[in-house]
Amino acid sequence: MMIARSVMLALALFGFGAAAEPSQFNFGDECELSLSYDIELERDRLEVSDAGETLYRIQGDQLWVRGKSVDLDASQRALVRDYHAEMERQLPEVVELVNDALTLVGNTLDTVFTELADFGLDPSQGTDVMARIQDKVNASMRTENGGIRLSANAMDNFSDELDQTLETEIESVISASMGGMLMALGQAMSEGDSGDFEQRMEDFGTRMERMGERIETEMEAQATALEQRANAMCGEWQQLDLLEQNMQRQIPELAEFDLVVQGDPDLAMLR
């Protein structure tokens, strides 16, 4: 069991640890943004809903609130059109950032599983794990017609959900491969003419440590680039929030629906 724990610890530290930073989906460490409702963007339609109930829908410069068409003047139509256009521009960027983060996590897993192939792990299993995770993410962020769906609190929950899913998937792989891993690891530690068991355990730990350092070095630049993109995206969503606030002031029917919130969501009504 000591050997098994060593392998699981190595995966936990260097699989999750090296990927933890890029897997976080937020708009920068100091960017406090959240969504109060769910968003769906399909073709020329933007829909905002709460627990399955459509609150408002925008198509071009037309607006429906709780299923009823709202008469708009020229300035109001321009606001609605600009808001819709910004959502069409920014929502795909969110999806792209998520996919790039998942790619980086997948590359990390591939490296870890390849390094541990000598101990009974199939290198292709890392790719299989990420394929299942990608399917889950696509199911949560894509509509049946290929549109984009972003749920309330998605920006807050993505990192935790990804880490939890990774842990579950890798634990499943470890459990299924445990017999072969124990045999391969035991054989690796018993081969050779020099050194006792304790020394071989120490050598194994050193190998895992070096692997982690190498992965961290290889992934650091890519993780930094993702973080910079997230920070830039934060500024864009802050501007979108200002546009939304203006639209709420100019169109009374939208005043109660504060979708993009900076800071404490409970204080949004005081803005």
How is this structure best described in words?
With 271 residues, the chain is of the alpha+beta class. Helices cover 64% and strands 13% of the residues. The protein is built from 5 helices and 8 strands; from the N terminus they run H-E-E-E-E-E-E-H-H-E-H-H-E. The strands form 2 sheets. The protein has a 6-stranded antiparallel β-sheet, with helices on one face. Strands 1-8 form a two-stranded antiparallel ribbon. It is elongated and about 80 Å long. The N and C termini lie far apart (57 Å).
Keywords:
single chain; 271 residues; alpha+beta; six-stranded antiparallel sheet; two-stranded antiparallel ribbon; 8 strands; 13% strand; elongated; disordered N terminus; disordered C terminus
Set down the secondary structure blueprint.
Elements: H1 2-23, E1 33-35, E2 38-42, E3 45-50, E4 53-59, E5 62-65, E6 68-70, H2 74-115, H3 124-141, E7 148-150, H4 154-190, H5 197-250, E8 260-262
Antiparallel strand pairs: 1-8, 2-3, 2-7, 3-4, 4-5, 5-6
